[in-house]
Predict the 3D structure of the following.
Amino acid sequence: MKNKIGERIKSLRKKANITQEKLAGHLGITFKAISRWESGQSYPDIEILLAIANYFNITTDQLLGVDQNCKQKKIEDIRSQVHENFKHGQISENIAILRTAVNEFPNDYGLLSDLAFYLQTNGENGEAISIYQRIWADCPDNKTRYNSIQFLAYAYDAQGEKEKALAMAEELPYITRNQLLCGLLEGDEKAKHLQQEILHDCETITRNISALARTKHRDGGEAAAQKQIALINKAISLYETIFEAGDYGFYHTRLQEYHLDIAHQHMHLHHHTEALSCIETAAAHAIQYDSLPKTFPHTSLILQDYVHTSEGIVKNHKSNSSHEMLYSPYQLASKTYNPIRRTKRFQAVTARLAVYAKEE
């Protein structure tokens, strides 16, 4: 190691056509120290490695002889494994992998961002916040920094620090990258981007409608339940407008969620027949989602020729939608459905879901 670093310093100095004395003057040391490095008799102190690298306009990794291609390949392999794990809900496994990776590559902000995200997903907001703060303060890549702001705001909010969360939200630019690209791209590339934006906007609007229903009409009374049902039906109708051919793809999961939300409100109103109809529809969406091929082209007019892929879809649990709907305490396993649990229609739904339910 010593000889190799000394050889690199000598090679860089010769290439720059400077003497040991001149290099020593720039570094604030004696030329004898440089002579000892180059002859392999000693090794530069760690504090001076950065100064040497900066002088020759290289990275310390290059000075130390770290193979950048191998390093980047290893980082990419780690992130690929982490992404694959997330598709199977392996959160704890990813945290362990990323802790090891960050120890090896402490200044890779992509790995740091991934670690913070999985810590946050696992409810470990305190540590996630400290990592996001570091990324926000030090990362030179704006995309990574802005992503850290978004997640940092959510982490603060989860900690009950509402003012800090709102302050972080104010740091984000009003005009987003995607909005800007809508005006800059052309042809097929623009068309695909617009379709992606429509899907994104549809999910944002429907999520906001659902949140509005829960926020504004949460007193638990009959009128509030009726208004929640009406609002969530508005969200469903937006999906039905965009996917008039019924080719919902990933968004089967959203429709499953919304139909169950309505079923829950019907149970509150003791409308058991209506609740069962919503449960049957929700189950159909769960099964259709779990039966999707990896890729298929949409046929609905707005999304015509847009190809859905399940490769990038991630989740934070280890079971499919049918399994979650059947066994989650927040879905059909909830005591909310006890009054109809023994009906033939309810039992038929659970039997059908059981056929498709899978847990990895």
Observations:
- The first strand starts at residue 295 and ends at 297.
- The chain is about 70% helix and 0% strand.
